[in-house]
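Practice problem: Nicotinamide riboside transporter PnuC
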Amino acid sequence: MSFIDQVIQSAQAMSGWEAIATLLGLAYLYLAIKESIWAWPCAFVSTLIYTVIFWEGQLPLQSGLNAYYLAMAVYGFWLWRRPKSEEYSVAIHRLSFRWHLALIGSGVVISILLADYLQATHFSKLPYLDAGVMVFSVLTTILMARKVLENWLYWIVVDGVAIFLYAQTGFYFTMVLMAAYVVMVIIGFFEWRQLYRQAPTSEADVSTQ
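Answer key — structure tokens:
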């Protein structure tokens, strides 16, 4: 069977709910690029569906990750709805190199610890990739909610690794979806960077917001 046939077969095997979750996931990314608050309701419904689907499919780790996304969708909506004039509102900003170094370092350590557990319990076919994608997805979602410009660069790496992970585990349609995500997050980075450069200094130049 060719790769294209495998992708088509994987797409045909999708349930109606899974298709809805996929479309809402794409809508979430598009709206996030546009800095629209409606990105988060799309993310909430999409991840709610995926939480149930993965639980019923006996993938508790992925189900738990999407349950986390549910909470972050609520947090992101609450954060983004605040007027920019309020004290606790957020604007697109950057983090210092030290913040990124600490974030990446802690993410790597947590990923290794989780992967060791997965390997010892035979809970995952590819424990290190599985753990890395999960841990950095969690961390990067926080950066997205906080409107950290570099979140898009993290997503390029995370989604790129996820493509390989899903290819190795037979989720071919999801792999193609991740490839589409990579294109969208690259666009997102350049659009947010333009908005960041156009913002007043008081809003944009915040390294620890």
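Discussion: The radius of gyration is 18 Å. Students who identified this feature from the tokens alone can consider the problem solved.
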